[in-house]
Design a protein that fits this description.
About 25% of the residues lie in helices and about 20% in strands. It is α+β, with helices and mostly antiparallel strands.
């Protein structure tokens, strides 16, 4: 079903068109030339009240706030993710046959063999091939740390 588009004409000021204030008469409204000056505009009053350009609104404080926001974003989101990715890459490089591992899907197994991009896990009597990136952690058979006795 097609809908008719409603176009609303908006006044668009092009850079070539002179901008006049609503209360001031233009040269054509005031009857033509004034004092021998045909079609010239009066210079802007000193001080430039109300004559700021749109680019002046984006100043130094806003840029500093934007840079501060980006720095906070980096340190809270992107930095820790980069560190985790580096640790995971080191863990996958240190993988060797005989390691007990856990996959992303929660499957526990022992590494039987390692290829360039795949790992073969032995789960009970079955051998299953996974991508290396599917390994989330290596389980070590380390005894828990002994706490010093109090007393």
């Amino acid at each position: 079903m097609l809908h008719d588009a409603v176009l609303i004409p908006l006044p668009i000021l092009l850079p070539q068109q002179p901008q006049t204030s609503p209360g001031a008469p233009s040269a054509t409204q005031s009857g033509g030339a004034q004092d021998g000056q045909a079609g010239t505009q009066q210079p802007a009053p000193a001080g430039g009240a109300g004559q700021g350009s749109p680019l002046d609104t984006c100043g130094t404080p806003q840029m500093l706030m934007m840079l501060g926001f980006l720095a906070v974003l980096w340190f809270t989101m992107l930095g820790p993710e980069r560190k985790r990715r580096k640790e995971t890459q080191q863990m996958l490089q240190a993988l060797k046959p005989g390691d007990k591992v856990v996959t992303m899907g929660g499957m526990h197994g022992v590494v039987a063999s390692i290829a360039e991009k795949t790992v073969t896990l032995r789960c009970d009597q079955q051998r299953i091939v996974f991508d290396r990136s599917a390994i989330t952690r290596i389980e070590r058979d380390e005894p828990p740390a002994q706490e010093p006795k109090k007393g």
